[in-house]
Amino acid sequence: MDSTQIRERMPVVCSDEKQFATVDHMEGEDSIKLTKDQAGMHHWIPTSWVTRVDDKVHIDRPGRQAMQEWMTTPPEGRQY
Q: Would you say the pTM of this structure is higher than 0.85?
């Protein structure tokens, strides 16, 4: 997986082929910041979840699991 292919506003699709998020932007080489959810919160996922990138970012787990495991604060204490 080439993280340089990940672009702002790309849909993030879970393993059950449903979109569950949208890319806000890359943070470093190993984290993706997602756009705000309906509650106005940002979330972060590691690029290690990404299986491939085409016109979407595909991850290796179902959406429900991803939403339980995503980070709610910037990784490594970063403040963005």
A: yes
